[in-house]
Amino acid sequence: MLSVRKAVFPVAGFGRRFLPATKASPKEMLPVVDKPLVQYAVEEAVAAGITQLIFVTGRGKRVIEDHFDKSYEIEQVLKLQGQQALLDLVQNIKPSHVECVYVRQPEPLGLGHALLCAGKLVGKEPFAVVLADDLLVGEPPVLAQMVRVFSHYDCSVVAVKEFEPEESSAYGVVSGRYWDERVMSIGKIVEKPAPDAAPSNIGVAGRYVLMPSIFRHLRAQLPGVNGKLELSDGIQSMLKDEQVLAYNFDGTHYNCGTKLGYLKATVDFALCHPELRGSFDAWLRERICDGNAAR
């Protein structure tokens, strides 16, 4: 049985929607309450049994590497101040058995191109792809659900969700034949189609478990009209040779690549946070009732 040990995190994008906040800090480091988006993504991967994290970075992304590295100065200060709880928190950002590897994407030429940059590090084994600005919450974690599906069917798996028809241009859109309420055999995948051209209202939600054959198909692709090499086009090419499944995961999706999705995640996570949930819930209810929110 094939195991999934590696995960690729494409984190080289500019984060245009969040400028100027992302001018000097990556969008993947935007905090949802007290953890950056990329840490939620890493925790999900580790919970799925991933032991090697491959970050495809770009200019200005060094802070991501620093986040998962040891911080001697902070740890020493916390130790001297007797802040053991905070010290444990900082030291356990990444488990000791998990390895972080970094590779550069010299230009933002699409998700497919980002994966090709990681190809030598992935090698000839199945791997996961995790988009940090898609924040997924499930029990068990969504990537763990997908690894289970992959292990059962022994083929590539893409996480999907239903979306409103007018939102099609924000997703890779799939169609196919459902085997049961959660698993579909993909017949077609289209990257960000216009609503009148979308084959369905089922879209990819930022998680993939892929066979290494995807690299061969990506290398054979030509860039699209925007000059980018899209992963969806590589998957469509894969369908000529092998089966790819869409998995309608059990959980909640926050599209934190948009301001609205990011704010929704922040509010929901604050309402569940052990330090904040009571006081934040009370404040939010009062704020809604009196209508005095800042404008």
UniProtKB/TrEMBL annotation:
SUPFAM superfamilies: Nucleotide-diphospho-sugar transferases. InterPro entries: GalU_uridylyltTrfase_bac/arc, NTP_transferase_dom, Nucleotide-diphossugar_trans. This is UTP--glucose-1-phosphate uridylyltransferase. Residues 11-266 form the Nucleotidyl transferase domain. Keywords: Nucleotidyltransferase, Transferase. Its EC number is 2.7.7.9. One of its GO terms (molecular function) is UTP:glucose-1-phosphate uridylyltransferase activity. It comes from the Bacteria. It catalyses: alpha-D-glucose 1-phosphate + UTP + H(+) = UDP-alpha-D-glucose + diphosphate. Belongs to the UDPGP type 2 family. Gene3D superfamilies: Spore Coat Polysaccharide Biosynthesis Protein SpsA, Chain A. It comes from Paraburkholderia eburnea. One of its GO terms (biological process) is UDP-alpha-D-glucose metabolic process. The keyword NADP does not apply.
